[in-house]
Amino acid sequence: MKTAKLPETEIHSLLPVSIIILNYNGKKHLETCLDSVFKSSYSNFEVILVDNCSNDDSVDFIKEKYGDKFNLKIVVNSENLGFAEGNNVGAKHAKNDLLVFLNNDTEVHPDWLKELVKTAVSNPSLGICLCRVVTEGLRQDLIGNVDRYGRAVLMRQENFKMNGGEVIASGPVFLIRRDTFNRIDGFDSRYFIYFEDIDLAWRAKLLGYKILLQQNSIVFHKVAGTTKRYGLSRRRYFLYRNTLRTLIKNYSFSTFWRLFPISLMLIIIESVAILLTVRDPYLPMAVIRAILWNITNLNDTLILRKQIQNTRVIDDKEILRIMAPFNFLHRIV
User: Fold this and answer.
1) Could you tell me the strand order of the sheet in which 98-103 lies?
2) Biggest CA pair distance of the chain
3) Kind and range of the H or E element at 188?
4) Where are the alpha helices (H) located in 97-231, listed in sequence order?
5) Which residue spans within 209-308 are E strands per DSSP?
6) What angle do CA 283, 56, 99 make, to 5 degrees?
7) Is pLDDT above 80 for 170?
8) Which of 22-26, 159-163, 194-198 has the weakest average pLDDT?
């Protein structure tokens, strides 16, 4: 007896999704974000709202406005664990095999989740699926990626097509399979904020997973809506610190020694250019602190590097192929 084939829409509806939203003093963003999520056309999901010890009454607001939602779970951390570890906590509380990490300073299109799930169903080798992020003030024909020097940049659509539709990025929203997330040990908790998503995607790609962009899944994003509370020099400290750690961990020995000195030089040039523009006296110290942190924590980084390099199945030639072309002016953050 033949089993009747389920319509595509029913197959998708059978795949439950866990949407993890991290919050830290983001009360002003939560209503826009959560209202749009709960209006999604794809309804088979749970929301894990992880609060990083906010002091702006975010948790009380969520309980009051959304406390009747059966598919909402609120997790409150006793301290601010940062973006990386905060999201790791959310993943531990999620019960489904498809995980979606969504920034709280976003607003989603009603069909965003349906399109992500459709892509996951039709691509068994998919590790990560990105959305088309519409960011205020930025051209919409540009796509986020990383270049060979570890700079998060925007690249043109034609370069994206030449890459075979793959990037090494994840950004303010992405879907990842739980087995992929677990296999790469989730986010590197030492990153706190910035570059943790690129590092995650890079490590997934090294294990052979595809990282695709679903342009029909649309999410609206406010630039640095959450992280702008940190001063410029502190943001640059985390960005430069984590960029260097990512290069040390993820490149092969030969590629590292070829590109790392250039990356370090670009960080110095960029920080000088910013200093001349905004005259932040703390910026030079942020660069020095970023370098010193990597020296102090080199042993920890090398332990992770050994694990990554021993298990990788993709060589640097393939990694470099799908990276964005170098453009000094197109850095995202």
Assistant:
1) 72-76, 45-51, 17-23, 98-103, 173-177, 126-135, 210-221, 106-108
2) 76
3) none
4) 112-122, 157-162, 178-183, 196-206
5) 210-221
6) 80
7) no
8) 159-163
